[in-house]
Design goal:
The structure is a homodimer. By secondary structure, chain A is α+β, with helices and mostly antiparallel strands. Chain A has helices spanning 4-18, 26-33, 37-49, 65-87, 97-103, 109-118, 165-173, 207-211; strands at residues 53-55, 61-63, 144-145, 154-160, 181-188, 193-198, 202-205, 213-218. In chain A, the strands form two sheets. Chain A has a six-stranded antiparallel beta sheet with strand order 3-8-4-5-6-7. A two-stranded antiparallel ribbon of chain A has the order 1-2. The first copy, chain A, binds a DNA duplex through helix 3.
DNA sequence: ACTAATTTTTAGACTTGCCTAAATTTTGTT
DNA sequence: AACAAAATTTAGGCAAGTCTAAAAATTAGT
């Protein structure tokens, strides 16, 4: 049985690997987990012994197949718990992350499979992230960042890149939810901000906001 | 924040205190937790420093008010999770104990209070044990062991003393569930076994079975 | 009441995860 | 290419929780 700590390392490395071609560096992992680089080095040796990562001193770290499998199972559990918390217990989408961080370590495939059925086999979590199936397969959508939409193009909001409390609450204030239609009215090249029209009204989104919103382009 | 280990010690001491006037002994605790006496002694010193137990060397151990509060909160969580697993995820009553042992350590009053509401404020868990309220208050019923019923007396099955897989599965086989009416037809003084009539048919219960079933007496 | 058996405690050691400080390797700059 | 800066690793330590073996206290038996 991997400990909570091992699970957290593997999950962090998975997250870092996903967004870059390079292996995850010691410092990146330390940052992600709030520990010190020396601690990480130590742990990498142990994870390597357990065949969860590919590790050579001073090189970056990547997950082995076994490591990826573990990471995806934790992510699956995390996201299903988030759906449960939002759908069944009425938590808001900005409140569920920390709880899911605890619940994801509960060790029972039977439990999580029943939970999945209870929730009616959701494909995405409350932030729009895909839920891996029991084999670790993740469905991909052809979503793009809102920054990729040209003036006049329309889309549906499908997810957020940054699911920090602050960003999610900002979206709440603007009454923007997953599934909402959205249309880019105007792009200011100066600061890359965009005027967008939603269900309700027009907003001006900063470049940062646009980078953090996923949409599926709607063809005319 | 108490660690999982601390929570488990406190819960074990609570359970031992409940069934005897004496404080829990080092060996009893070690047995209950599957550790060695030396380890327990060590831990008792630490729990005492944290004001969770009353401890004097070579005397038994009892919980302080603070310790009881912690124990009851863990028990509350354990039992609510059990209800969830049985009511919502269709686990059987003999399957939920180990999972609840993990889930009871999830640290969030908000979560457990919402769960309680989601489950419609159940008063008893799937084994008939009362669920402490958020202040730690437990409702008591005037239930007695089936051994306390005289020949001819009737009752309703309200709980089990021993919630081991084996005993619960034995009851399943006999189709005996909480809430079932039951009547003692005959008592064999020789081995204290009883012939009882349930909903469906008559069974002969050994003394051991009768000791482990709680019933509420029905007046005529 | 005294010794034997049992229980409990102490002592010393191990593992997991974490830290700081110092050494080493890699990377970047001129 | 050589040196400085940054990243990484090594070394040595600490806390929590566990163990075994041995010592001390309590309890039980005659």
């Amino acid at each position: 049985m991997p400990s909570f700590t091992v699970e957290n390392y593997v999950k962090a490395i998975y997250g870092l690997n996903k967004h870059s071609e390079e292996g995850a560096s010691t410092n990146q992992i330390a940052d992600a987990l709030g520990t010190k680089a020396a601690t990480v080095t130590d742990m990498l040796r142990k994870l390597s012994e357990r065949k969860l990562i590919n590790y050579k001193k001073y090189q970056g770290t990547t997950l082995t197949e076994k490591g990826k499998e573990l990471a995806l199972n934790i992510i699956r559990k995390h996201r299903l718990w988030e759906v449960f918390l939002v759908e069944k217990l009425d938590f808001k989408w900005d409140e569920v992350h920390d709880l899911a961080e605890e619940l994801e370590h509960i060790n029972s495939d039977e439990l999580i499979n029943r939970m999945e059925a209870f929730l009616d086999h959701p494909k995405f979590d409350p932030h729009g992230d895909p839920i891996p199936d029991r084999k670790g397969k993740v469905e991909s959508r052809n979503q793009v960042a809102l920054t990729d939409l040209k003036s006049g193009e329309k889309g549906l909001v499908t997810g957020v890149v940054d699911s920090s409390k602050e960003f999610l609450q900002y979206l709440d204030t603007l009454k923007i939810e997953l599934g909402n239609p959205i249309e880019v009215k105007q792009i200011f090249e100066y600061d890359k901000s965009r005027v967008v029209k939603t269900n309700i009204r027009e907003h001006t989104f900063s470049h940062q906001v646009c980078k953090n919103l996923f949409v599926i382009k709607q063809e005319e």
